[in-house]
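tool_call: predict_structure(chain=1)
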Amino acid sequence: MRGGGHRYEPGCVVMIFMAALVSASAADDPTTAEKVQTPRPLAGEVTAVEAHVENGVSVSARTPTLFPISRELVFDNYVVFPDGTTVHQFRPPTLTASERVIYSDTLGKVVLPMPVNQLIADDITTTTPDGCNLTRFTFQTTGRANPNQDGGAYSVSYALYSFCPRSVAQANRPSLIIPGTSGTVAFPDDGFHILTVLLPPNTSIPTNFYLGISANRSNVGIIMGAPPLIGLSCDVIDHPVLACGATLGGFPDQPYASFNAEFFADDDTCPTSFVAYRNDNPKQSAFLTGANHPIYDDLHLNTNNCLMTSYEVMVKGSGYYSFELSTSCGGAAIPGTHVEQPVTATPGVPNKLAFKLDPPVHVPQDLWLSAMVNNSTAGIIMTGRDACTGHTADFLCDPSGLVLLSPPDNLQEAFDITITCVGSPPVGACCDMFVLDDNGEAVCRQVPQMNCPFPPVGDNIARPKWVPGA
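tool_result:
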């Protein structure tokens, strides 16, 4: 584990770090000069930065502003059955005895217009481990996002993707679709609609995936704007303006970048779990550690009592990868956490490596993850930002001499990692100052810390905070 690697000298840390990012881009996709990205807002009159052509349509249009909707708005209900038949119903299907809600985000009250025939997607983290059988999911759209512009009949296409679809070229996106979860539905008018998609039996999903949607004409919108109350979604969406990293301006000053959606699962196959750490941005470049040279990232979980059932890392490039968790940089591996996997990668396409721990492993709140690969042309993906639940400091660690890798840039030195724990997260009191009630007053709820939007992640100003156990 420790031998065979190169050393980073303290005076060369910045040069080596940046060279690693550039080299990974060139090695993984020789046709694209990939750059490290930071989240970018979808404000009015923002010009798209990924100017290319998809389905014959140039992706260089301006992104419109958001449009608020009334809390009293009535939605029409449409249901898509597993055979593709769509039926208009007066009310959505009722929850069956064997189902439970594994993700819920219903408080958003703004409309984001969707670019014509262009995919946008939202990250979804459920409260179930990998392999759960999904029974159905819902999302909300309208055919008249801007009430002052034309509407009419429209259709939307949807799919669930194993990870961020715009992290790969358009030709490779169909390979990310989870089988049985895609389709197209036509609406006869431009009203507000809730679409319920009923899935075939045994539609297995991972804990973390993306809901992708596109529309066949302009002025079609997706309803969004609030953090979820069950499960987790980060404050970014996948959009033509910025792959895997666009925001609505950044919560709480602007609405939260998360679709109104709900997911339901077969309770018999879905034990309860929660994500204690998630830092995801697979569009980014890989950090090249050097052949057989481990590099560590610090992780702070959102709980001090995690019985870890699995963890995921995103990598780019072919190679033989090794990972383990420890309580210090260069320290001994926590028993049961060392994993290895060979990868044969498609150039430019990242791989999500998911490792199930059986039996689960009890881990402390503060950890280090070690990543190592057997060559110098592949590595673990760097996100360039902090975790959306949990936290990581702005550095990595090279155990040879305990050198901290922290170049003076505007990017977070952080690996693309997700950690899942079995059971339910601790709950507490959350007084929400942003998603208000009908009278414009703050709402206090009992929720896990990751579902409390106040104060927002990274906000150190003295404000009311989540109170555990209250």
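agent: The mean pLDDT is 84. Proceeding to next step.
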